[in-house]
Every structure is written in C-alpha cells, then in structure tokens.
Design a protein that fits this description.
Helices cover 57% and strands 0% of the residues. The protein is mainly α and 49 residues long. The protein has one domain (4-45).
C-alpha cells in the first residue's frame, strides 16, 4: 500500500491523487470488482461512459 506522503507534491497533482485512491483499494487476482466500480464512478463524474 502506498503512503499519502509518497505522492504529495508530485505533478500533475490530480493524476497522483487518483493514483493514490486506486492504490488504497484491495484487488486480488480475479477479484477486481471494487476497483472496477471505482474507475467507473470516476469516469461518470467526469462525463465519460
């Protein structure tokens, strides 16, 4: 798991914030439901389908 401090100050900031959020979601092989839902939600919030 990645610590928040690891990505602080990196640019572009928005990209690294998303990277950090994704890194906090457990995802074992064949069990990607939570990460899939998270990425879909981000896409919807940004008008992507």
């Amino acid at each position: 798991m990645i610590l928040k401090e690891t990505v602080e100050g990196l640019q572009p900031q928005e990209l690294w914030e998303h990277f950090y959020e994704i890194s906090q979601i457990p995802r074992c092989s064949k069990q990607e439901d939570k990460i899939r839902e998270h990425v879909i939600e981000i896409a919807k919030r940004n008008g992507l389908e």
